[in-house]
Design brief:
Elements (H helix, E strand, L loop, with lengths): L3 H4 L1 E4 L13 E6 H14 L5 E5 L1 H6 L2 H11 L3 E4 L2 H9 L5 E7 L3 H9 L3 E4 L2 H13 L6 E8 L7 E2 L3 H10 L3 E7 L11 H19 L7 E2 L3 H6 L7 E4 L22 E13 L4 E2 L5 E2 L4 E6 L16 E4 L2 E6 L7 E4 L11 E8 L2 E3 L1 H8 L3 H5 L8 E4 L1
Parallel strand pairs: 2-21, 3-4, 3-11, 4-5, 5-6, 6-7, 7-8, 7-9, 9-10
Antiparallel strand pairs: 1-21, 2-12, 12-15, 12-19, 13-14, 15-18, 16-17, 16-19, 17-18, 19-20
Helix pairs in contact: 2-4, 6-7
Amino acid sequence: MLSHEQNKIVSWTDKSDTYTWFSQRAWVEIDLTALSNNVLQIRKLLSPGTQLMAVVKADAYGHGSASVAQTALKSGANWLGVATVPEGIELREAGIQARILILGATYTNEQVQAIARWHLEPTLCSAKQALVFSDILEAINFDSPLQVHLKLDTGMSRLGTDWHNCAEFVQLVARLPHLQIASIYSHLATADSPDPTVMKLQHQRFESAIAILKEIGIEIPRLHLANSAGTLSDKSLHYDMVRVGLAVYGLYPSVHLRSTIDLKPVLQVKARVTHVKTIEKGVGVSYGHTFIANEQMRLAVVGIGYADGIPRNLSNKMQVLLRGVKVPQIGAITMDQIMIDISAIPDVQEGEIATILGSEGQHHITAEDWANQLNTISWEILCSFKHRLPRVNII
């Protein structure tokens, strides 16, 4: 008979498909119902005329790009955002026809030709890049205008033409053959901060750039500025479209934004107990004996480690959930295994499932918890889980 966990399975995405997910030592569960909820919640914040781009770069922040993209589109997203050309091609090969914006910079002949072939939409950050695109498309006799998105730097100091020079940049692109401006956008650097000073300054710069363009008679088909934090914090940032990544996956960019909408984490990490043993007082655990038992205790070995994406710096700091109880991880986290203290749980058996990240009963362990312990951000935690952990889609 299938367990409750096995009954939840819709599909698993390990391409080798050599054996079923429940033979795995560890895996990542993706709750597509939670994902759909998050998209619907975000849409409620938007006016009817504002579109939603689901950002699915980096394999949808480690959640599986194709299934996330398909679910997001069915739930109300209009666009998809990726970082690279191969990420866009992967979505096209999965049969996805929605408009796809490449958020990263692209220059090479091969990239431009692939963008044209796969009907992707690039970000242009400079006049030089625009001229490269136009020349290559001319050389390959591209017979329809390529939709391009012009990025202005309003304070991120990353990609984009300085906003002061927006008129010259936009006018040049508008004159080039084979290119059609689909949108003008910028990116917020501090929207997740409780202090809105820099965000407001960037917003003012964006508004000033748009005013300049309007004064010289340039028609602007679409504007977008807000990321997840901007979308949750200020409706005046929404414009014609918002680009939402982290919030789609059920996490808040900052604590002060938690009250805006009800998001549900999409990702959980599970692993099996592979060995159970008793150790005596004074016995060291794992490499370097960074943990020494101060009394007789029972420990379990769990089949997941830093090669799967658990940060080694969490050694002796993290907890896992087993039978709905929080138990401490002990000793150095190793490449493929961790040890946990199960002294408080009777009769633990090999094969039982531990929740590494996720929820059991009233307890939760989140990517935010790990990020706070490690002085990093939730985005990094989500993207860290390696692909030897199969992604399992559940409802």
